[in-house]
Amino acid sequence: MSGKHIADDSLQPESFEFSAESEAKITTILAKYPEPRKASAVMPLLDLAQRQHDNWIPMAAIDVIAARLGMARIRVLEVATFYTMYNLEPVGAWYLQACTTTPCWLRGSNEMMRAIKDTLGLDNHQRTEDGRFTLLEVECLGACCNAPILQVNDDFYEDLDYDSTVSLIESLKKGEAPSVGSVKGRQGSMSKDGPTSLVSLKDKDGVPAWFQDQAASVGGDD
Amino acid sequence: MPKLTVDGVEVEVPAGSTLLQACEAAGAEVPRFCYHDRLSIAGNCRMCLVEVEKAPKPVASCAFPAGDGQVVHTKSELARKAQKGTMEFLLINHPLDCPICDQGGECDLQDQAMGYGYHSTRYTENKRAVADKHMGPLVKTIMTRCIHCTRCVRFSTEIAGVTDMGMLNRGENAEITTYLEKALDSELSANVIDLCPVGALTSKPYAFVARPWELKKTETVDVMDAVGSNIRVDARGSEVLRVLPRLHEDINEEWISDKTRYACDGLKRQRLDRPYVRGADGKLKPASWDQAFATIASNVKEVSGKQMAAIAGDMVDAESMFALKSLMTALGSPNTDCRQDGTKLQAGARAGYIFNTTIAGIERADALLIVGSNPRWEAALVNARIRKTWMRKPIKIGVVGERLDLTYDYDYLGAGPQTLAEIASGEHAFTQVLKDAKAPMLIVGQGALSRADGEAVLATCQAIAEQTGMVYDESRTETPGEDGAEPTVTVTPAWNGFNVLHTAAARVAGLDLGFVPGEGGKDVEAILKAAKSGGVKFLYLLAADEIEAKAFPNCFVVYQGHHGDIGAQAADVVLPGAAYTEKDGLYVNTEGRVQLGVGAAFPPGEARADWKILRALSNVLGQTLPYDTLEDLRMALNKAHPVFTGLDVTESADWSAFVEMSLTDGKMDDTVPFASPIENFYMTDPISRSSATMAACTEDFVVPKRKAAAS
Do A74 and B164 touch (CB under 8 A)? Predict the structure, then answer.
């Protein structure tokens, strides 16, 4: 691992301006903070800049945000380099963030990583030669129940193994994003064999089965 | 006032103190890296862990408030173990390159690892490596050594007021850097070298030059500006290798400007190490002291006292000026002046030419008017004190003069005399701000006073001080107590908010001892004019390099000084004197504080201490000065001017004498705006003009700005 790489000067745009759409959002964001504390808006503004600018933040945007919030430029850059979710150099249109933290690793994230390596030839922090894919290993994405997880741009693909990762990437290569969530078709974090509890909410008499059981045991004590 | 027990010693500390301060008050030594008295608390090095009874785990004492009844152990087994553990963590990524590190021998990490670390490492994995950062011509970086205490970041943000340093990335990848690796553009930037507790930021010009234990350390004062910063000069043999700050709470705290610190390499270049006499072909030729004196004596013989003149330079010690003044008086010449820049300040009423508030006194002010001065360049430490005040409490600052980045916010009132006149007449809104303030102050710079209408500017500033109540004596107000209680007495100490900011270290001493034109005497401008026209036939320049001195065909010029600068080029005889690090002498700073400078090395070659040269010359001229030692000379100086008696004290000057002084009621010239006399902070005197380091700074910091301004 090394610190975040900032894009070379040749890649940096000369200037940056928030779009009208972003400006509208900025107004809402800034309204949340009292004027002397407007520096608090630095993180949402960095996010807006990144979304507006092909998923990476140019240095020109750092200057714009610093001026906007009355902060020193270095303070904005500190925030931008601290958080992994901000990109300071161009990334692929398909930005893959693979979780390799313990639960995902236990559930086979190594296989997922191998599939990415085999299909795209990518190791951590790398971008494909055609520039379409970037891979970043990240820490816990907070969906351990459906491990392992691959985040593609803003969406989670869950329950991946080698084959499903390969087919996911193949469809991404074609420019198609399959439906998000569990690739095994699970609903939420439901058991893979279907529901095991609360299978039916009501029995024939309109009373829940679990309530009947409880009532019976209470009745038995009498 | 919480009372607590530290290592069995009971102490009472002021409310709001930290545990670390309480430990220090109890005499317990607590190791630390990130904590610094004058910076905000970061609490990120974790070295200051101590045990507090009833606390579940060791406590970082620098960031923990001292509370009543706490029982603290700094040397218990738990505390020791915690400190040792922290040290082990800090050393995980710190390279073992002490033998090639410039910080070696004066390194906090090295010292504390001896006191609070394990004897050897248990860590066998690879250490991390960090790319070095470019931080300009003064600060050398070896970032692998950095332990991320962030003292440098806090210093540049809080004290220097230049927010360009920061810590990028996080965890193991954290790196200290400047924004886009630009050099820190501050006059105080090199103080981060002293602050760095390890060898990550070291001195670039001093890299691999010497080890601290090889150096002879001399405590003296600085003469690069009129602040009189307390410094320590480290020399090896006759070579001054570096200058470091010395603690003086009332002047420079523990900082010094970059010029003070780094102009010392100018002491090795362009030096005058032997006398020179101008030959018949118009070229200066090396000569012996006897030849030089004989040449002067033969040229002085036919000149009457009225046709003689002397100008004293900006870095001269008081004793030499006093000796020269005595010699000129003995020769019958009233033409003496120490005001090379032509400032219209007058000797006599001391309150009219010193920084009455004192530098530490700035912290009491709640309104400030800066007139024709760029304190950031004229007196960097005064500016740092203004910033400190501005950071800590509400203070309204107004500027008349150039619109510059002074590292604090101010109201820009106007460019020149017109605005000043409006403030004086009460038409300007800022007059009311000054009137409403409890402790209003005014700083007038040499840029406003060295103009042709300088005396009128001074009179206007005096009027503003008078009208807005800037000067008052101690007052007591009694509030009757309720229900027969004792009345409460509030004492407001005396205040004088009128301040003249000097740029020359010798100026206040020169005015104090009356190195100004006597009865019917000529000032600098008149002397130079007369030297050109033939009215002055003998001109003595005592290290005077800031004047327009070209060779005067009809005037015999003697230059006594340490550098072959502007003055020496005009001279017919050059006498080699000593620089401030090579002689003992008294200097008076802008506050009127007399301080003793101590020689750290010998002058080069045949150069001599300046008072000795003057004493020897007086003998040749038949007007032998009545002192054979520096002590005798000081006795005579003290007798003639008792103000030099007290060392390192500031006495309040008599304001009424200044008010009664007759100043011109002439008009100020509205057409010319005020401008600071300093065009380049890094080159203001013969020493800094000869310094390669200062030239590099000029190239890096000043030239780009000039180019930008020109285009």
Answer: yes
**By CA distance, what is A77's nearest residue in B?**
B168
Nearest to A82 among B165, B170, B179 (CB): B170
Closest CA in chain B for residue A3: B173
Q: Is omega for the bond preceding A44 within 30 degrees of 0, making it cis?
A: no
Count of domains for chain A: 2
Report yes or no for ipTM above 0.95. Answer: no
Nearest to B581 by CA among B592, B570, B558, B597: B597
Distance of residue A78 Cα from the nearest chain B Cα, in angstroms: 5
pLDDT, block means (10 residues), chain B with 711 residues: 94 94 95 95 94 95 94 95 95 94 94 92 91 94 96 96 94 92 92 96 96 96 96 95 96 96 95 94 94 95 93 96 96 95 92 96 96 96 97 96 95 94 94 96 96 94 94 88 81 94 96 94 93 92 87 89 92 96 96 96 95 96 94 96 93 92 85 93 96 96 93 85
Contacts of B162 in chain A (CB under 8 A): none
Dihedral sign, CA of B480, B482, B488, B490? negative
Domain check: are A119 and A163 in the same one?
yes
At residue B487, the pLDDT reads 83
Whether A155 is in a domain gets the answer: yes
Alpha carbon distance B170, B525 (integer Å) = 61
Q: Which of A28, A49, A82 is the last residue of a domain?
A: A82
Report d(CA B640, CA B232) in Å as an integer: 31
| Residue at a domain's end among A61, A82, A103 | A82
In this prediction the pTM is 0.92
The pair phi, psi for residue B108, each rounded to 5°, is: -60, -40
B166 and A2: CB-CB below 8 Å? no
Domain co-membership, A151 together with A122: yes
What pLDDT, in 10s, does the model give residues A5-38?
Answer: 899 999 999 999 999 999 999 999 999 999 999 9
Q: Does A81 touch chain B (CB under 8 A)?
A: yes
Half-sphere exposure of B447 (CA within 13 A, CB side): 24
Residue A108 lies inside a defined structural domain of this protein: yes
What residues in B contact A74, CB-CB < 8 Å?
A: 163-166, 178-179
Chain A residues closer than 8 Å to B156 by CB: none
Same domain, residue pair A36 and A70: yes
List CB contacts (< 8 A) between A77 and chain B.
166, 168, 179
* Closest alpha carbon within chain A to B181: A74
Establish if A186 touches chain B: CB-CB under 8 angstroms.
no
Domain of A15, CATH number, reads 1.10.10
Q: Is the pLDDT of residue A214 over 80?
A: no
Q: Using CA coordinates, name the residue in chain B closest to A72.
A: B163
Structure confidence by residue, pLDDT tens digits, A105-130: 999 999 999 999 999 999 998 999 99
Q: Residue B206 and residue B552: Cα distance in Å, rounded?
A: 41
pLDDT of residue A2: 61
Instruction: Decide if B173 and A2 are in contact by the 8 Å CB cutoff.
Output: yes
Residues of A in contact with B170 (CB under 8 A): 81-82
Structure-token pair, residue A206: 């309109």
- What CATH number corresponds to the domain at position A108? 3.40.30.10
Most B CBs within 10 Å, among A74, A82, A85, to test the B interface: A74
| Distance (Å) of CA B136 to CA A72, B178, B186, B204, B376 | 20, 10, 11, 9, 19
Max Cα distance, chain A (Å): 84
Residue for token digits 């107590």? B481
Domain that holds residue A55: 9-82
User: How many residue contacts between A and B have a Cβ separation below 8 Å?
Assistant: 39
- Residue B251 and residue B408: Cα distance in Å, rounded? 20
The amino acid at residue A113 is M
* Residues A153, A115 share a domain: yes
A75 touches B at CB < 8 Å: yes
The band of A1, judged by pLDDT with boundaries at 50, 70 and 90, is very low
A77 touches chain B (CB under 8 A): yes
